[in-house]
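Morning, I've got a small favour to ask if you have a moment. Here's the protein in full, and shout if anything looks odd to you:
***
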Amino acid sequence: MPSRPRLSPLSAALATTFAALLASPALTQAQTLNELYESARGFDATYQGARAQYDASIARAAQAKAGILPAVGLTAGVTRSDLDIETLTGTGRGTSTPRDFTTQNVGINATQPLYRPANWATYEQGKRQADIAQAVLTIAEQDLIVRVSQAYFDVLASQDSLALVRAQKVAVAEQLASAKRNFEVGTSTITDSREAQARYDLVIAQEIAAENDLQVKKVVLDQLVGRPGSVPVPLTVPVVLPTATPADINAWVSQADEVHPAIKQARLGLDVAGLEVDKAKAGHKPTLDANLGYNITRNPTGTSTSTVGTRVNATTVGVTFNMPLFAGFATENRIKETLALEDQSRSVLEGTRRSVAQATRAAYLGLVSGAGQVKALEAAEASSQSALDANRLGYQVGVRINIDVLNSQSQLYQTKRDLAQARYNVLLGNLKLRQANGTLTTDDMNAINATLASNGSVPAVPPAIGPDRGTTAPAVPVTPPSIPVVPPVPVQPFNPPAPTMPTAPVPPVILNPPVR
């Protein structure tokens, strides 16, 4: 069998590609995960809406305190009265006397509730409404952390995918050029060239799809953080992935039941519903208020019964008692309504607990599974590289064909892409586990941020390089590795014994059936 020219290894193509990128002066200042998160806090419409809702809820909760505080009011007025006094009996009967006078009054009055059970229940509801608003804001902050991290790692994954596709294109182009050279010198058939050309065309299509996916992911990240042209800092090498601590799924679920903001919100909602029942029951109870006032009334020209100008200074102190007796069964029906709503809130709390527990278990299992996939894919990457090297060596010595090398290349690059995506999934899964658990904070994001590269600049996405369709692919100028000499395999002479023909079996005896 004719010998085939040796090909440059795939790792050499990768090294050449990235070496050219690192030597390029076109470096872009990148942003860390923390920087983009801070930008999103000031720009994201969803988070800004949640923040405004929090401020509104706090102000609404503060209004409930007014029902237990005194109410003070200042009043003032001027009245002009025109009277026509007609005498009906006695002297002057039948005559009328006009009388005009002015009344001026000013006063200040205060009312202090002494016993109003409904107002106190409303005040307690207000305090719990403020706690509910804080829980809702915490959920929004955790959601923002996850959304920013998701968009961040999506861009990094798309960049890695595009870089790997372009590096694969270089390697396939090299294989295509080698197949064409071998065909020209007559050491291979046209099939090798056509197989390499088909694989090259397929990689071109994958490159176009990867470029489009990267642009879409960048648009999503830019819209989220409000910063056009944002460039995430890649992960440091080697990648250090966080582990789930504690390594006990029940511990995560128990912690979620205690601190998860959604469970806190549901629990506070049950308290609010119970206080609403107390407010409804207060409809049967009396109320007692204290009143204090100081009022001045002036009549400069007298009154309807006197022509002498007067001024009255009045100070009043008292209490007002009110006892409801019958309200048309409205209070009884209101109590029934609030009791039913309290049962509903209790069911919502139980449903929230179950949902949080399920989400926490799923997130924990997903993180553990993702960590296992990373280890398996790392082993698969090493195995795929060894398989590619073996197939390339076999192709050079004539025991493998071109399609074997191409398949090994595709398998290696697909494994690399899957490994990169699995690493990002583990980093994001760590945040999602803490979100499902309800303990996600910016400190957890800082731990993820520590896994990024320390320098603030990253190279741009690898440019599209390689031959055009239908032209001879230029070989990458790299030094091929030395190929070890394969010793000849001793072949035993093949002298099989002559086959023995089997003896035909004795034909069966066929009996004639009796004739009736």
Summary: The chain has ten helices and six strands.
